[in-house]
Amino acid sequence: MPPSALRIGLIGAGRMGAAHAGFIAREEETVLVGVADPFSSALAEAEGVPHFADHHALLDPNGGAGLDAVIVANPNGAHVATALDCIAVGVPTLLEKPVAVEHAEAARLIAAEAASDVPVLVGHHRRHHPAVTAARELISAGAIGRLVGVSGIWTTRKDDTYFDAAWRREEGAGVMLINLVHDLDLMRHLCGEIVAVQAATSNAVRGHEVEDTASVVLTFADGALGSFLVSDAAVAPWGWDQATEDDPTYPYRPDTSCYSIAGTTGSLAFPQLAHYFHDGGAAGDWMRPLSLRYEPKGAGDSYTNQLRHFVRVARGECAPLVSVADAARTLAVVEAAGRAAASGRTEPVPA
Questions:
Q1: How far is CA 177 from each of CA 107, 231, 342, rounded to the nearest angstrom?
Q2: Exposed, middle or buried: residue 26 (CB in 10 Å: 0-12, 13-18, 19+)?
Q3: Reported pTM
Q4: Contact at 8 Å (CB) between 35 and 57?
Q5: Mean pLDDT taken over the chain
Q6: Separation in Å, CA 107 to CA 131, 326, 330, 348, 349
């Protein structure tokens, strides 16, 4: 470990906490120095670092772990209060998504961050994927013309033990807030702001308080349309996790895509970046065969790139790619989808 390695504390020792511990361990510029979790010391013991039953003790500048930065990966409902505590003691923070469970709650964190010089990076890790970077550049450069629409899908069957934690079955969780939030964030990042949503949800398979399946229709600011299906109750190969190699715990299916992005002069299958177009650059006619070119993209995975970015953020070398205010916009879209599902109407997304 270099002497300059960023000393990181971890708040929350569940699935994502354990994953972050692994990401920290494989990076030369980061070192885990403590874990705070009120329920278990197992992760701290496995990593050979001090365990703290309370995150305040971990953050204590006089008796804590001597932190340079912290990653917050505790239950959704504790995100805002924990991040506020981190800001209060001046510790740069990587806050797992969602930024909050309610947009109004996120406003408190936006105000606190704005009033301080403590950076907060929100963990919409997919934005750091090289295919996302390449696709955003292609769309912005007009490689597929004017955006017409985007269609996406995320489907998998989570094992029943995933829901042993009660908070995953209750309000403040659900497949929209835990999973769809990632995809809606990428829809905003790639295609522009979402201004209205229609939606339907179902909890018919699992019977939990929160939904296990949802379908949404999106209207973007420039008039493009989108649709998305998300479910944690279906055995299927379609979705970000299967189509990318981001998370090795998911079986990789290179023959599947998760987004289809269509424009007036071409289209992209994502994440393969299969670019379909008519030769000559014109819109062409629908009877002409399409040409296909696979566009280049960089190397790496979302989590590694995110952690390296966080190191730079914590050292004051750059601003967070995903700010609290930016993440709150995604949360506003999720909330609008929830209202649309309940009302049966098209719901606007507040500016």
A1: 17, 12, 15
A2: exposed
A3: 0.91
A4: no
A5: 94
A6: 31, 11, 13, 19, 15
